[in-house]
Design goal:
Strand 8, helix 4 and strand 9 form a beta-alpha-beta unit. Helix content is about 30%, strand content about 30%.
Amino acid sequence: MNRIQIAIQKSGRLADKSLSLLERSGLQFARSKDKLFWFGRNLPVDLLLVRDDDIPRLLIENVCQLGIVGENVAEEKLLEVQQQRPDATLESLLRLDYGHCRLKLAVPEAARFESINDLSGRRLATSYPWLVRRYLDQHDIQADIVTLNGAVEIAPSLGTADAIVDLVSTGTTLRANHLRPVAEVMQSQAALYRCPAALGTESEELIGKLLTRIQGVQQAAESKYVMLHAPRSRLAEISAILPGAESPTILDLEGQEDRVAVHAVCTEQVFWEHLEELKEAGASAVLVLPVEKILA
């Protein structure tokens, strides 16, 4: 059977969570000494550990079949490649709900800024020149882009740029450098991408299996298994309180005709407010348990 290669970031903010996601999806790897290639032990799925900005190119060039990378990096590299290969594509299979960040335009705190038009003729420092160029073109703004690979936030204080476009999570770095965000260029999170090449039937089936497993892990992370005892007469009310639950399982309680046991998988967060509402509706012995895996 043909083997599949998945590329993930070897170090950085997405590395640990990406590896954990794959391992919780049932993948086991024999780790190599150089830590760049891990052989899949239980499935024909190998792991490539590389720089995050190499992952989109590896996918576009069909070097690997799957990759986990931030949407900001994938979009930036795709736009870059399309300057030479306009037909280049990347397919996003699934957003992974971690690695959240925003690409924001920021200006010095004392700078005048009333609208995006104030950028006309200005210099913008960024590590994402193609995303910024697309943003400016969408707003019909002519501005110069200064490409920096790091320390973007200090460009205005050094006099090399009038504004910046950089990744922001908490905003602490902007405040420390006396910058204020004024516009959002892009929202981003980690996503699972695939190469554009058509693969054989077995490989496509394996990718489908991996996708189902990853979705199951994601759903389980948000789900809780709730067990409780309840008056039979108030089942409808109690079922309506359980967040995101389908029809619960109802079990008779030995020797109690008027009370039953209710078991339900809640696919939304279960807060204390829900438990208090359940108690007011007559529920007792309420247990909320984590869910490890879900296969829909």
